[in-house]
UniProtKB/TrEMBL annotation:
It comes from the Eukaryota. Keywords: Glycosyltransferase, Transferase. Pfam families: UDPGT. GO terms for molecular function: quercetin 3-O-glucosyltransferase activity; quercetin 7-O-glucosyltransferase activity. Belongs to the UDP-glycosyltransferase family. This is Glycosyltransferase. Its EC number is 2.4.1.-. Gene3D superfamilies: Glycogen Phosphorylase B. InterPro entries: UDP_glucos_trans, UDP_glycos_trans_CS.
């Protein structure tokens, strides 16, 4: 192709007749793509042009999961008063190992992103604002070098942001990992133990490359003009106010809650035509749920990353069977071979006929989780407590059995169980046991506190929906951002 024009050297006349163009650049993980794409759609619906980008390999999966007519490049598709389109990095990486991916993104990402920005200007749609996320901190630097203002979407909770911020700036000392009785306190947060700390901040953390990226993002967060967070004021007002109220030094930029970034509608419309599914969901989940009475089904899913060993998978299988309740269990294809012998085909294991043999269990590789949680037959969600899953179960009003594994899941479980009173914990130490699975499910569905958990879940469901409804706290924050971007385009940072 010919020489590419600089990204920001665009006159006011060239852009005055067009809506501002925002470019979202996302880490290629399911837990990041979901909230980033949902924010992109909400912004587009308010009248802007939005391009969503990630690596080329992840991008191909996004296009294939969306409705017909959605493709990479081109003018995109209408959404509300605006449009959304896909265009991906020319990076040629299709690996799976996390350290290799992080190295690739750090080295190949910036030049590929620079090229992407230049292509937008050359095509007559210069980028007015870049929105990145924590695992690709270089996106803000690339935007700044091009003279483009940038935002960051923190895809976890405000509480987790506070924990990272305090740790990175040396404002907290966590108790030793073996002292689970010791507690510490930060402004705007409840008393916490080391078990509630994101595991990426602990000495035992094996995912050093991920930690390094997050630490860099936190250190340089002030480079971003806006810092969005996938939460809402009514949920985390104390944490937001404490960070903004001068109780933390150095002070972080103000957090702007714009969540929960979830799909609230069950039906198909223009907002669900563009999807962020990197794994194809099973087609039979909803029909199977339709055949069960209200609040009868145990839904179990540990997300797109968590992996259990063979012993844990077996204990989970027998524990779900032992509940005597129908269950829908997401077991990804890479873990399916770990299921006990005969579990899927109705054979016997340990002298007991499996739940699958009695027709009570459905095991799928992936599910349309938001639709599943919204179904009236679901009584409880056995979850790893990833932040997306946490917000989805809150919005659906479904109590939880919390089974966190690592990362921010540890903190999310603390809030779901202890602060929001929406469920119970499933303990893993010293090992997962089937009786504990059964006992936790029983406690959440029919135990002495089950009614209170359901009532709390229902109250938080109403709060979630109010925040993102027209005029709600998060909707107002999105509207204010859109108005600010429109005003910035009227006075471009760089003029001819």
């Amino acid at each position: 192709m010919g020489e590419e024009a600089p990204a920001a050297t665009v006159s006011a006349a060239a852009t005055a007749s067009s809506p501002p163009h925002l470019l979202f650049i996302c880490f290629p993980g399911q837990g990041h793509i979901n909230p980033m794409l949902r924010l992109a759609k909400r912004i587009a619906a308010k009248g802007l042009l939005v391009t969503f980008s990630t690596t080329s390999s992840a991008g191909a999966k996004l296009v294939s999961s969306s409705a017909g007519g959605v493709s990479a490049g081109g003018n995109g598709v209408p959404l509300g008063r605006g449009r959304i389109r896909f265009e991906f990095l020319d990076d040629e990486f299709d690996g799976k190992e996390i350290d290799a991916l992080m190295h690739h993104l750090e080295t190949a990402g910036p030049p590929a992103f620079e090229s992407l920005l230049r292509r937008q200007a050359a095509a007559g749609r210069p980028v007015a604002c870049v929105v990145g996320n924590p695992f690709i901190p270089w996106a803000v630097d690339v935007a700044a070098a091009a003279g483009i203002p940038a935002a960051v979407l923190w895809v976890q909770s405000c509480a987790v942001f506070s924990l990272y911020y305090h740790a990175v700036h040396g404002l907290v000392v966590f108790p030793p990992e073996d002292d689970l009785a010791a507690t510490f306190k930060l402004p705007g947060l409840p008393a916490m133990s080391v078990a509630d700390v994101p595991s990426f901040l602990l000495p035992s953390n094996p995912f050093k490359s991920l930690t390094d990226a997050i630490v860099r993002q936190i250190r340089e967060i002030g480079k971003a003009r806006w810092v969005f967070v996938n939460s809402f004021m009514e949920l985390e007002r104390d944490a937001v106010d404490a960070l903004a109220g001068g109780e933390v030094s150095p002070p972080p930029p103000p957090l702007i809650p714009v969540g929960p970034l979830i799909e609230l509608d069950d039906g198909e419309d223009e907002t669900t035509a563009v999807r962020g599914d990197m794994i194809k969901a099973a087609d039979d989940c909803i029909g199977w749920l339709d055949s069960h009475p209200p609040r009868s089904v145990v839904y179990a899913s540990l997300g797109s990353v968590v992996v259990l060993d063979a012993g844990e998978v077996a204990e989970m299988a027998h524990g779900l069977a032992a509940t005597g309740r129908p269950f829908l269990w997401v077991v990804r294809p890479d873990s399916r071979e770990l299921l006990p012998d005969g579990f899927l085909d109705g054979g016997a294991e340990d002298g007991h006929v499996t739940a699958a043999a009695r027709g009570r269990g459905l095991v799928v590789g992936w599910s349309p989780q938001e639709r599943v949680l919204a179904h009236t037959s679901v009584a409880v969600f056995l979850t790893h407590c990833g932040w997306n899953s946490t917000l989805e179960t809150m919005a659906a009003g479904v109590p939880v059995v919390a089974f966190p594994q690592w990362g921010d899941q540890c903190t999310d479980a603390k809030f779901l169980v202890d602060e929001l009173a929406m469920g119970v914990r499933l303990r893993r130490a010293p090992s997962l046991r089937r009786d504990d699975v059964r006992g936790a499910v029983d406690a959440a569905v029919s135990g002495p506190r089950a009614g209170d958990m359901l009532a709390s879940a229902a109250a938080w469901s109403a709060a979630c929906r109010a925040a993102v409804a027209a005029g709600g706290s998060s909707d107002r924050h999105v509207e204010a951002f859109v108005e600010e971007v429109i005003a910035l385009q009227a006075k471009p940072l760089v003029e001819e």
